[in-house]
Design goal:
Helix content is about 0%, strand content about 50%. It has about 180 residues and is an all-beta fold. It has a domain of about 90 residues. Strands 10, 12, 13 and 15 form a four-stranded mixed β-sheet that branches. It has a three-stranded parallel β-sheet with strand order 9-11-14, with no helix packed on it. A hairpin with a 2-residue loop joins strand 12 and strand 13. Its main location: secreted.
Length: about 180
C-alpha cells in the first residue's frame, strides 16, 4: 500500500507535503527521473524485492536512514535485488535491525547475506563509520567483496566495523577492510 505513487514520470518536485502513519510506503516511484521529494525520518530510499539495474545519482538524504536494500526475505520465493548503483552513502548491512526492539527479543534473522560486491564507491560521509557489517551469528555474512572503495569522514579516513562477516578486499579500500 502506498500513499502516493508515480510511474515513468520526469521532473517531479514535491514540497510542503506531510504524510503520517502510512500503511507501507509513503511515496513510491517506478521508472522515474529527476525527482525532488520531502525529507524523511526513516529510509530515504528503500529498494525492495525484484529491483534490478537501478541507477541512483545526486541523492541527498538528511535526516533519515539513507538508502536501504531492505524488507527482503519475508517470502521464501521472493525476487532478489541486483545491479544497484549507489553514490555517496555508507555501506551498512544490519541483520539485527529491529525498529524499536518491539516483539523480537533474541530473534535471529533468517536471511543469509552472501556473494555481495561493493565496487567503485567513493564519497564524503556525515558518519564516522562508513562500513558496518552487523551480521547474524546464525547466518553470518560471507563472500563479501570490497574493491575500489574510498570513503572519508571530515577529511579523514572513515572507520569500518564487522561482526560475523567474512570476505575479501582488492585494490584501494578505505576505510581499511575489517573483513
Amino acid at each position: 500500500m502506498q500513499t502516493l505513487s508515480f510511474s515513468k514520470s520526469k521532473n517531479i518536485n514535491i514540497v510542503g507535503l506531510t504524510s503520517l502513519n502510512g500503511q507501507m510506503f509513503h511515496v513510491v516511484n517506478n521508472g522515474c527521473q529527476n525527482i525532488k521529494l520531502i525529507q524523511t525520518d526513516d529510509d530515504c530510499v528503500s529498494i525492495g524485492p525484484g529491483a534490478t539495474n537501478l541507477l541512483m545519482e545526486k541523492i541527498t538524504c538528511s535526516p533519515g536512514h539513507g538508502i536501504s536494500v531492505g524488507s527482503l526475505g519475508k517470502d521464501q520465493n521472493e525476487a532478489g535485488v541486483q545491479n544497484v548503483t549507489n553514490f555517496k552513502n555508507p555501506i551498512v548491512v544490519d541483520q539485527n535491525y529491529f525498529p524499536g526492539n518491539k516483539n523480537c527479543p533474541d530473534q535471529v534473522p533468517g536471511v543469509k547475506v552472501s556473494d555481495v560486491t561493493y565496487q567503485d564507491i567513493h564519497g564524503t560521509l556525515e558518519t564516522e563509520v562508513a562500513v558496518n557489517f552487523n551480521c547474524s551469528s546464525k547466518h553470518p555474512c560471507s563472500w563479501i567483496r570490497m574493491e575500489g572503495v574510498t570513503l572519508t569522514y571530515k577529511n579523514a579516513v572513515a572507520a569500518a566495523s564487522c561482526k560475523h562477516a567474512g570476505g575479501t578486499s582488492l585494490g584501494v579500500v578505505q576505510p581499511t577492510s575489517c573483513l
